[in-house]
Amino acid sequence: MVKVNSKDGSVICTTGNENFSMVKVISNHYKVTTRVQLDRESRSSHVIVVVCEDQLNRSSHVEEGTEVGTFIFNAVATDLDLKENGEISYYTSPTHSGFRIDPVSGEVFTTMRQDREMRSQVTFEVIAQDGGIKRLKTSVTINITDINDNSPVFPRPEFSFYVSKRSLVGTDVGHVFAFDVDVGLNGP
Ligand SMILES: [Ca+2]
Ligand SMILES: [Ca+2]
Ligand SMILES: [Ca+2]
């Protein structure tokens, strides 16, 4: 059993050994288990290196049209002990997602204005590396929230309805409608 001291409890532990895996029991407690049947006659001892890294935060949101260079969120649940001991740096993949991560702080910023009517969600990977060795890869999702940046439009230039001259007052003669590609209160 391995217990990890972490101020926010959000770490992921792995072994560098293909014969063993780390199974999370409860927060901060991992069990080392075998992946294969071990043979004492061929090998009587094994060295297991356990690596525990910052857990990455996986989702956030940004309003469409937000200016380039705006801070969105910190993708890294910081752990002061790990930060002091390790030389962990972060990068995103692909690089053209519209977001970039600060390699040291893990803060995510916009690199383009998003348009919710083009896409309402952006997913990219954040990779943590330690001294050039890839340690942890996590998918991060950013939801693009709507602003009212589209006016309603009528589907045709004019509507015409037939009304009988014998119609009573208050008779329903037809419906006029418009489209709006925004959503919720911003939309139709
Ligand atoms: Ca838009
Ligand atoms: Ca609208
Ligand atoms: Ca919109």
From TrEMBL:
GO terms for cellular component: plasma membrane. GO terms for biological process: homophilic cell adhesion via plasma membrane adhesion molecules. Residues 54-154 form the Cadherin domain. It is found in: Membrane. GO terms for molecular function: calcium ion binding. It is a single-pass membrane protein. InterPro entries: Cadherin-like_dom, Cadherin-like_sf, Cadherin_CS, Protocadherin/Cadherin-CA. Its main location: membrane. Keywords: Calcium, Glycoprotein, Membrane, Repeat, Transmembrane, Transmembrane helix. The keyword DNA-binding does not apply. Coiled coil: none annotated. The keyword Repeat applies. This is Cadherin domain-containing protein. It comes from Mytilus coruscus (Sea mussel).
